[in-house]
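Many introductory courses stop at the sequence. We go one step further.
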Amino acid sequence: MQNTPEILAELNERSREVFRRVVEGYLDTGDPVGSRTLTRTMSEKLSAATVRNVMQDLEYLGLLDSPHVSAGRVPTQLGLRLFVDGLMEVGSVSDQDRQTIDATLGGNEPGVSAMLDRVGAALSGITHGASLVLTPKHEAPIRHIEFVSLAPDRALVVLVFADGHVENRIFTPPRGQTPSSMREAANFLNALAEGRTLSELRSHIRKQIAARRQELDSLASELVESGLALWENAGESHERLIVRGRSNLVDHTEAGDLERIRTLFDDLERKRDIADFLELAESGDGVRIFIGSENKLFSLSGSSLVVSPYMNADRKIIGAVGVIGPTRLNYGRIVPIVDYTAQLVGRLLSGGRKGQDL
């Protein structure tokens, strides 16, 4: 399947304009856009028949769809993605919206939680969507970790910190994980977590992986050098040590060494899975737009999510704000609103001033 830049490169100026006007019309009204409507707004004088032909070509590319035989066209999810990635004109935050967002910083209730509640309410009111506010990541030492499987592609990590703070984070687990493997990962992590923050725990696991890798390489090197074994996909997560002529190994290798190699493999794979868990639990994306089924948390409702991280003074991601709404969100207006809000929250939590500095 082609990616959106490749598809965009195939479109000539006429096709791009027809496509852009269909998407903008749909985002504005929620209704299919017909060829006759487009002939009145196109910069080039075209007949309705010509516009229909262009729309059919765009439909063939998977960018437009016809809800009914005689109706106009609406953008597909791929079409919306192409529009957002390559054709959308992002506006600036209006003075009124800016004032509404800035006002959230001056509420009567003190504290970060109260401020973030006000930010969420302001975003919801301005955009007419649902707001999403992820509070700053906690960097206290961890007391307990638990993974809970919610679905094959979704899991919950429960983090209990030494200061009593509790966080729940939803993430997509590495493939092939089962509830029992998640319990095993949690037990392993809890044995190491004492006194360590999440970042320190992840670093510790990475060091253990490197040590195990060195031990495995050292033990297997003689087999490889003698031609009795070879690495396949060496260093990758699905690597294998392929042993040739097993009967010849009796004279060259102690049975205990082969068992040790197998044990090291199992241990290395297990630690890699656990490191992946931690990476997913801790990671934060940059500014992102998730459309329809790309949006794992809300894909069943056909929603889109516009989300932006906010950072502390050290430029480290500590939380995020976003807006959830129908796929026909006014992305060009909402993207700068979410971005501005994230910068404002980050500046405030870092001890800076309000919007005029942004």
